[in-house]
Amino acid sequence: MTKQAGSLALTDLNAETPCCPPLARQRVPAETAAMMAPAFKALGDPVRLQLMSMIASAPDGEACVCDLTPAFELSGPTISHHLKTLREAGLVDAERRGTWVYYRARPDLLRRLATLLTIETPGETRTG
Fold this sequence. Notes:
- The chain has about 130 residues and is mostly helical.
- Helix content is about 50%, strand content about 10%.
- The chain has six helices and three strands, in the order αααβααββα.
- β2 and β3 form a beta hairpin.
């Protein structure tokens, strides 16, 4: 099984249904943990976390690699490697247009990660 196959199982879930209850509510099943770990691992690198933030907050919902690369003091191939890791983890989609590649965040997976990390205080109800 490739790295990509592991992320596909997670991203194929119904986008309206969170993968699981928050980890503070109950233990995360081993299968769920194995499916979500690549996304958390990908975000565990400072450069990838910054790239993810830049992509997710881009005004048009997408960012060109031509705009991402100059923001770092890293080589183009290194940035490409980090973007590939985000793509393989299912966090971003990529589309080639001519010589440039444009990246879009996958909000469904980001919502699942956020849901898993949600901590509710007693008496608090979650909205949204």
